[in-house]
Amino acid sequence: MKKKVYGLVGRNIGYSFSEGYFAKKFAEEGLANCRYHNFDIDDIRELPEIIENTEGLRGLNVTIPYKEEVIPLLDSLSKTANAIGAVNTIVISKKGLKGYNTDQYGFRKALKPMLDIHHKKALILGTGGAAKAVAYALRKLRIEYDFVSRTATDVIFSYECLNKEVFDEYQIIINSTPIGTYPNVVEYPPIDYSLFTRNHIAFDLTYNPSETEFMKRAAQYGASTKNGYEMLVYQAEKAWKIWNKK
Q1: H and E: helices and strands count for the chain
Q2: What is the mean pLDDT of residues 35-52?
Q3: What is the DSSP letter of 163?
């Protein structure tokens, strides 16, 4: 059987979920010809060299900070990836490099079981590639949303703007930033956590640690919490299907 290689492209990704997940998957499913590697790079412009020099490379996942930066290096995008403006999955074939976004699928699948009738509006902490995928998923779920960043604009909240009035209106709070990710586990987004209630969802896309400070602090005031692990599993399986579709 021909060797099939897959991998993850990112920066400082030693902690990554993907390598261990796919290694276990390949072992359990008897896929002896499949391998998964981390490609930890300092600049996305190193990607063409990786592709050229890695025999049997069929597909890649892309993580922080390259989900947007990778797009100019690709030959085409799926409709969803183009709409989002961020890529986390690449198919490598004779036709070239095609970018997809499975983050939005994973997030939607993970969030949906938590939703109640009053969960109609969401705040997305962060404005990067992950935030764009979250926004797309929320549109699919017909949930209104706004972004939160350190600097306010006409269309973006600043963290300082998040008061009781805002929290009463937005009852899903999603951390799409890397704040609180291992090894910086004591960090958390700068919001007033006493504003959370039992009606709130606090969803953190981070999965390492399994309970972030963002989640802990929101849970103290009754919020339902979830980390990004389920989302990662869903997006990984979706990526696997895309890599291997006929």
Answers
A1: 8, 12
A2: 97
A3: -
Q: Strand pairing partners for 37?
A: 7
Q: Tokens 């963290």: give the residue.
A: 159
Report the DSSP beta bridge partners of residue 162. none
HSE (side-chain half, CA atoms, 13 Å) at 162: 27
Domains belonging to the chain, first-starting first, are: 4-101 (3.40.50.10860), 105-230 (3.40.50.720)
- C-alpha distances in angstroms, 34 versus 22, 24, 59, 243? 9, 11, 11, 12
Instruction: Report, as residue numbers or ranges, the catalytic residues.
Output: 67
Tokens at residue 112, please? Answer: 């949906």
d(CA 167, CA 223): 12
pLDDT tens-digit series, residues 11-41: 998 878 999 999 999 999 999 999 999 999 9
Residue 1 has pLDDT above 80, yes or no: no
The yes-or-no verdict on residue 172 having pLDDT over 70 is yes
Strands (E) across the chain are located at 4-10, 34-40, 57-62, 76-77, 89-93, 96-100, 121-125, 144-149, 156-158, 172-175, 201-204, 224-226
Please answer whether residues 122 and 98 qualify as being in contact, where contact means their C-beta atoms are separated by less than 8 angstroms.
Answer: no
**Cis-peptide, bond into residue 48, ω within 30° of zero:** no
Instruction: Write down the pTM of the prediction.
Output: 0.94
What integer is the mean pLDDT of 175-188?
95
Task: Find out whether 99 and 242 touch, Cβ atoms under 8 Å.
Answer: no
* β-pairing verdict for 4-10 and 57-62: parallel
The DSSP output letter for 209 is: S
